[in-house]
Amino acid sequence: MAQGKFCVQPQCSTHSRLYWMGIRGTRLVFSMNPAPRRVPIILYLHGGPGDACIPLTMRYNAALERDFRFVNLDQRGSGLSYHPFAPDEVVTIDSMVEDIHQFVLELLRAYGQDSLILVGHSWGSVLGLEMVKRYPSLIRCYIGLGQVVSMRAALRLRRQWGQQSLGPRLGSIVSRESGAADMVLMIDELLSRGGAAMLFGSLGRIMTYLRSPYYNWSRLLNHAKGVAQSRARLDAELEQVDFSGQTSFGAPVYFISGKYDRHLPGSLVERFADGLKSPHRFIRFDRSGHCPQWDEPERFAATVKAICL
After folding, report:
1. Neighbours of 142 (CB within 10 A)
2. How much is the pLDDT for 267?
3. pLDDT single digits (tens) 200-239
4. What are the C-alpha distances in Å from 112 to residues 13, 25, 109, 164, 259?
5. Which end of the chain is more exposed for a tag (fewer CB within 10 A), N or C?
6. Concatenated DSSP letters for 50-112?
7. Is 43 helix (H, G, I), strand (E, B) or coil?
């Protein structure tokens, strides 16, 4: 397993450190905690496209390190894996899935295991569910957070809700994938969950990056560049994603949706789960928006342990 290690100590309760691995011509950075060799592995796939989140999982999800080897991968061109995409560099859903496939093979080989637990959030849930479709033998179980089922259906619901609740102008903004849409939806989720106090409290997530020993101003700028270039390459393809015709998977799948998720409404996910013939479960977090893993981290850790141990 070709890897390197960053030696800066994080200022939080996590035991994770940063490593890197060479995969398909690029250098991918990931966080990982020390753990016994046979402990179950969780691989976390961040949202976006491009919205890498190692500081957030280090802060909010460190409890999982007690029972799992928790790995959070910064995807190609994102976060601490940032590099400017070359004009001829292939960056598609298929190519991103293949990056993850090769990374999974290396990770399993390194720790002598046959399969792992895959967690995908939002955009990462597209890559995660594609992994389950294509390589089910490598997946012990899959957990989708803010799961994408049909982006076209989600965007239609967002437009209807936006025009009724926010007016025509903002309704038009939230009907497409964009940074502006994410901001509008996030603010509404926070206000719905707890008003201005919840909105103010969300600044803690921003501060998590500013306080991270792994991010300086240059890396924060690269993070923003990674989001921008990933969206430019992938948003149009993301808007066409549709799993709604899938009726079974070769590994157990679990979906966790926040009650206040405006990005990807839980009603679509619940309906999709109800139609599956293979092992599955839909779980609603009543105090969460689009990020249940950070809105209710204690419940998330308990749920993952109940599902996977």
Report:
1. 23
2. 97
3. 767 888 899 999 999 999 999 999 999 999 999 999 999 9
4. 28, 24, 5, 53, 39
5. C
6. T---HHHHHHHSGGGGGTSEEEEE--TTSGGG--PPPTT---SHHHHHHHHHHHHHHHHHHHT
7. strand
